[in-house]
Amino acid sequence: MSAPAAAFSALFAKRPTVIKPGLARIEAGLAHLGADALLATPTVLIAGTNGKGTTSGFLWQMLSALEVRTGLFTSPHLVHFAERIRVSGESVDDALLLRELERLQQDMPAELYDLLSFFEINTLLALRLFQRMNTTIDLLEVGLGGRWDATNASRPCLTIITSIGLDHQEWLGHTSAEIAGEKAGIMRPGVPVIWGGDAAGDAAASEVLRQRAKALGAPFWQQGQHFGPLDAAHFYVDLPLPGSRRQELPWPRRLAAAPPYLRDNFLKAAAAVSWWIDHGPVPALRQAQLAGAVAALDQPGIVVPPSLRARFERITVASGSSKHELLLDVCHNPDGARAVVRGLRETSLVDEAGGKVAAFVSILADKDCDEVLSILRTVCDPVVLFAVSSERSWSVARIARKHRDLPFYPSFAAAWAAGRSGAPSASSPVLVCGSVHAVGEVCAFFSIPL
Predict the structure, then answer these.
(1) For the domain with range 3-304, which CATH number is right: 1.20.210.10, 1.10.510.10, 3.40.1190.10, 3.40.47.10?
(2) Measured between alpha carbons, how far is 71 from 123 in angstroms, rounded to an integer?
(3) 293: pLDDT strictly greater than 50
(4) Is the whole model's pTM more than 0.85, yes or no?
């Protein structure tokens, strides 16, 4: 094994079997590498149970379209490790990151490097690469929760909380209010907060976030109040800031037929771009227009970051001599499954008369597999289950008896070979969904470029 390959393997070996809360390790790493320099770039910190990847991706696209050199750090990846780190106008691949990882390891004492977790090293790797590539704005997606996540060692000038749902309850709490408290840990004194929950959302979570922002003197901008949809053709942004004005703009054409959750996540990004243009700490943006950034999303050739892939994505693949249309989505928890079901209904892929789509599904064992399946089965039939090549993969034994009538295969390849002919009609795409790991294996199976 080559030295770079060995370094990469060693990094993946550091993936945790248990979560070790605390910021002491990442802060020690930053201090050794020069925290003031690494954290000097204006940064947006994005947390949330669902939606943070797409919100980050839309924000990165719009800032990049405004010719702002923007770094993007997201997780996990579908196929290639380098999907986690993007820089506007630059090519970032696994080979580049392996070289940067070797430099990082050489620049740190072994005893300090060995203490760092997989995600902490990833965070330092992203920050070092952003510094080397001279980014103007950095976008950091929180990995888990907020308060103790490695990205929370950053110094954000804007924070976004996309949604609150019941996930990772063993670490974050058993109620939406408790989970909101953990995610509120990314807030900073006086730093604006964009909250993706609307008036119809979880009142308890909203109140926790609102009170935390008030205690910190942080401006609090809520979806449905300060930004939101106007109608099928338009949305608005109306941040209560000196010199700001209400803007009413058409949706990007690419989102005209998108499910509601994608439009909702775009709205958070649009609100963030509006703030950057009017009040953010980047003078070069002062002459920009939100309308121009939104319109740029429809331009041919716009770069789609991996964090926007497999989010209700329709794609045609070849299998043998046949072509099949897939609908890829990383709906790995109950809220994600509900969003997909709503998307299927509102895009008329299923109807109230009982029409259904075929689905291939794989959920990780530490998720609420049974609830996800119960939700999906309201609109999916047949449903074929498959395992993935991960120690976290589910098994038949993990699934409730009420779902054991579903066929279960040891891999997607076996499931596809056995069940691909089950689509109700040639006009309906086949839903392939579940964990990021599972959808990534599907992308690799069909050689889908990312």
Answers:
(1) 3.40.1190.10
(2) 12
(3) yes
(4) yes
